[in-house]
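Fold Annotation — chain and its backbone

Fields — amino acid sequence, structure tokens

___
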Amino acid sequence: THNLPPGLEYLNQLDQIIIHQQVELLEAILGTETSSKYEIKNPLGQRVYFAVEENGCFDRKLCSPLRAFTIRIADNAGREVIRVIRPLRCNSCCCPCFLQELEVQSPPGTIAGYVVQNWDPFLPKFTIQNQSKEDVLKIIGPCATCGCFDDVDFEVKALNEMTTIGKISKYWSGFVNDVFTNTANFGIQVPVDLDVRIKAVMIGACFLIDLMFFENSLDGL
């Protein structure tokens, strides 16, 4: 563990990560989009990290699901250990150019890996890359991500897309929560021996999936 990025030692023990978006009262009452805040927990519900999205009001109002952002992830001592950077890019199944690409740094300033959207006319597809931009894993979502009263699973697969090794799940959180807020609860399941840098990139992928497919406050219907 002495070769691990500072702050990621704890991920070395986990095969399941829970990400809980915190409810913003102003957003719930007025429908005003606010910067997202998340708690990242272990399977026992204990907080491991917390995350805060940084961007401008202009981005949130006009670019909402496509908005550029920087998410800073800190440990319980307040030390930033992961930084997730998303530039403003396209999001359309009709346009194979300039698709989503997200950079994950750990420690901040040092590349841990990337999440790259792959063009597909029917399915959400992404490639997880390491710090050298070498392909490591694939993420493939369902045709429909509305999640009608059920969880929505994005499968984590080997590069051949035949073997499933984990998943990113958006948990259905109930009618009231989904109608009046767009807060989300996600679970990441990966092999415990997966490189912690790639686990950090999977956390970034979870944030990207949330913004791309579940930003709409009616996503649970």
